[in-house]
Specification:
globular
């Protein structure tokens, strides 16, 4: 939910908050009951239910924080709704950063400045494998002649008045979205280190970070869809269904811009989008502004885009090959083996031209047309000899039905032989692990897709995702919308590398 979709009526907003708070309390009661049952009966089903409910509660609290990040909150509302913050643990090491005023003399009269005291605030931050408390000290200097007080402005924080530093926030995001550690598990891990961070606190941070990062994700989307060629794919993801505690199947869509194999130095990037189902309307909405070449599988939901004429279809030989490979693995079929041999010849040529510019790739593919023509004739002849109900007939039928899209790469040096760029992007987020619930709600799916976009694009540009998110979160609050492109991964690679070198040398 964004600010545009929120009701403007105060009474309605209050009713939404009350209803959401009631749902949070209801889930807490259920979780508490199930935990009591755990001690009396060790049940995998109960453990699974607890995990799902914990995630549902996590999503509610995160969504609440995300809306707070995009909705104006009055000081009175903030004061009444926030609990008293616990002091940061004394046992943690402290780093002190002194923010001295720029002035060396009184800005009003030119008199000498003398110490008057200082304001001290503390931020809980995280460096790899350890917590640290960063002390921000702002000395006060007073003019001995006219009593003017000079002090450096307070350091900007990712979350206004929040105690979490950029390193800790980045660590929480990466742990949740890359390492698949739900927030309640992270809370338990931090407790073992002597730091009491409630799940609700972590959820608040995730929600506010999500709201903070959304404009940058939008800039990333513009970059990805601004290319002339895209790779697209999708994967099913389990999502907690509202109301009944069961799971439903959502979809995570990936769109990759990566022209490096065609000798293009445009920075690669990936944009993820979530949908509650696999209806064709979703990719049609995602790609409504795109014009160019779309390399994807044979999903019928893309057909409407191809029919409009602005998007040209390029198919994936890896998909076609996989069908023959599975048959050969299961049956040892000589026909499947022959198909694999012919496809291997195509890939051998492709390996020799990868990384070259389009014109050079086309020249290197001169033999491809002959191999494809012979392959096409062989497929037609072979299909006539097979039962229509056989697996081989199905594999050959798939290849022939999508033949024009499969061979398009042979006449366009920009196009790849397969859609592996999109498949790699999906594998990079390591979805589908046993007993892993992707999201606790559709809103949580949208949130995950946004973070995956930043994480995946960082990886494509050779950056450590946590280092990149730390860099961005530390600075984005002070950036104007018009300057956000400066925080895209390929613009900060050198700076992050230098920071890492300095840290290693320290």
């Amino acid at each position: 939910m964004n600010s545009a979709s929120l009701p403007r009526d105060t009474t309605t907003l209050q009713a939404m908050v009350v209803a959401q708070q009631a749902e949070i309390e209801h889930l807490k009661l259920i979780i508490a009951k199930l935990r009591r049952m755990q001690f009396g009966q060790r049940s995998e089903k109960i453990n699974e239910m607890v995990g799902q409910l914990e995630l549902a509660l996590e999503e509610l609290e995160t969504g609440k924080a995300e809306r707070a990040g995009i909705t104006e909150i009055t000081p009175e509302e903030e004061a009444s709704g926030k609990p008293v913050r616990k002091p940061l643990p004394d046992h943690l090491p402290r780093d002190t950063v002194v923010h001295a005023p720029e002035q060396t003399c009184c800005p009003d009269c030119g008199g000498h400045l003398k110490p008057l005291g200082e304001d001290v605030s503390e931020v809980l931050d995280y460096v790899p494998a350890s917590f640290r408390v960063i002390r921000h000290v702002r000395p006060k200097l007073a003019c001995g002649r006219c009593d003017t007080i000079v002090q450096a402005p307070a350091a900007s924080r990712p979350i206004a008045r929040g105690m979490a530093g950029s390193g800790l926030l980045a660590h929480v995001l990466v742990a949740k979205y890359c390492d698949h550690l739900p927030l309640y598990r992270q809370s338990g891990i931090y407790a073992r280190e002597g730091v009491d961070l409630e799940r609700s606190t972590l959820a608040d941070w995730v929600g506010q970070c999500s709201a903070l990062l959304r404009p940058l994700v939008e800039r990333l989307r513009h970059h990805v869809l601004g290319g002339e060629k895209l790779h697209a794919d999708d994967t099913p993801v389990p999502v907690l269904a509202p109301g009944d505690g069961k799971t439903k199947t959502g979809r995570l869509w990936t769109y990759v811009r990566d022209d490096r194999p065609a000798g293009n130095d445009t920075p690669p990037a990936v944009w993820f989008a979530y949908s509650p189902n696999r209806k064709g309307e979703h990719p049609q909405t995602h790609l409504k502004s795109f014009k160019g070449i779309l390399q994807a599988d044979a999903f019928a939901g893309f057909d409407a885009l191809y029919a409009q004429g602005d998007i040209l279809e390029a198919a994936c030989w890896a998909h076609a090959r996989r069908k023959f490979f599975e048959i050969h693995q299961a049956q040892g079929s000589p026909i499947a083996a022959e198909a694999l041999r012919r496809i291997a010849a195509l890939y051998a040529i492709e390996g020799a031209v990868r990384g070259k510019p389009p014109d050079s790739r086309l020249k290197g593919r001169e033999q491809v047309k002959r191999i494809l023509d012979e392959f096409h004739g062989w497929l037609l002849d072979t299909r006539r000899q097979l039962s229509k109900k056989s697996g081989l007939a199905d594999a050959i039928g798939y290849t022939l039905n999508h033949w024009q899209a499969l061979i398009r790469y042979a006449s366009d040096g920009r196009i790849e032989i397969d859609n592996n760029a999109a498949e790699r992007a999906l594998r990079a987020v390591a979805l589908g692990r046993k007993n892993f619930l992707f999201a606790g709600s559709d809103a949580g799916g949208d949130r995950a897709a946004a973070i995956y976009s930043l994480v995946g694009s960082a990886k494509l540009n050779g950056l450590d995702p946590e280092a990149y998110l730390r860099f961005v979160i530390e600075r984005i609050a002070d950036y104007r919308i018009s300057e956000l492109d400066d925080l895209l991964p390929w613009h900060v690679t050198e700076h992050i590398a230098k920071t890492a070198q300095l840290a290693a040398a320290a």
